[in-house]
Amino acid sequence: MTKPMGIVVTGVSGRMGRMLVETITTSEKARLVGALERAGHAWIGQDLGQAMGSAPMGVMVSDDIAQTLEGADVVIDFTAPTATIGFAQAAARAGVAHVIGTTGMSGAEIAQLPPPSRDALIVRAGNMSLGVNLLVQLTKQVAAALDEDYDIEVIEAHHNQKVDAPSGTALMLGEAAAQGRGVMLEDVSDRARDGITGARQRGHIGFAAIRGGDIVGEHDVLFAATGERIILRHVASDRSVFARGALKAALWTAGKAPGHYDMLDVLGLSEQ
């Protein structure tokens, strides 16, 4: 029997951290070997299970990245951009694959990730769910098929604690639409409208962000023309879809060459 993959989870006290812990500990293909939190967090030094209010797990929560990564195969990371850069550099030094679900990373921050070399194996995606990545592919295809008579709007909704906007998934969808149109997203992106903005510019891709309650994640891509609208939609009702996707990505890294990958690679859709 193949030995279960050893996985470290960062930010274990957060919503996604807890969900990842639950997903990994119920998997026959993976085992939790480390738990990381920021320095000074109340959970540091505690058994993770007890810190979460359940039975001991035998995994202590730590803020020592290098020590925690020793002997691990993969680290799964849904934290914040600055923290993710540090985790990526530590993972590369330790020869550990890094699955990144962190959103809100700027181009400059992404550029600070270790380059694809003999040491760095990174899977990074703005959204880890199968459905969303299929939606990305559909968005690209529809945008390629329709001309600029169809205005493109990306509308996303999330819970009231989300700190970045547009969401990483919305930007993935905008990028897919731009690629389908053969343009650069930064040249045609409308991120905010307020006051007297003037008429909508032909060919631009608009974004709208909704924040409220406990919405897990909803994304619409609207293609609107005179007389008709096409709406592509994905609704996530349970955060576990992201944890399952991240675990799938982690398991996929086994035996893979160093490099930078995304969920389309994991799902075998990158060449479609």
Question: Could you characterize what this model shows?
Answer:
The protein is of the alpha/beta class and 272 residues long. It contains 10 helices and 12 strands. It has 2 domains: 5-124 and 239-266, NAD(P)-binding Rossmann-like Domain (Rossmann fold), CATH 3.40.50; 130-236, Dihydrodipicolinate Reductase, domain 2 (2-Layer Sandwich). Helices cover 33% and strands 24% of the residues. The strands form 2 sheets. It has a 7-stranded parallel sheet with strand order 3-2-1-4-5-6-12, with helices on both faces. A 5-stranded mixed sheet has the order 8-9-7-10-11.
Give average pLDDT, whole number: 94
What form results from the Cα inertia axes?
Answer: elongated
Name of the CATH superfamily of the largest domain: NAD(P)-binding Rossmann-like Domain
Give start-end ranges of low-pLDDT stretches: none
CATH architecture of the largest domain: 3-Layer(aba) Sandwich
* Estimated helix fraction: 25-40%
Element order: H for helix, E for strand:
EHEHEHEHEHEHEHHEEEEHEH
Instruction: Characterize the biggest β-sheet.
Output: 7 strands, parallel
Please state how the strands of the largest beta sheet are arranged side by side. 3-2-1-4-5-6-12
* Number of distinct beta strands: 12
CATH class of the largest domain: Alpha Beta
Active site: 158 (proton donor/acceptor), 162 (proton donor)
Binding site for (S)-2,3,4,5-tetrahydrodipicolinate: 159, 168-169
Subcellular location: Cytoplasm
Domain Dihydrodipicolinate reductase N-terminal: 5-128
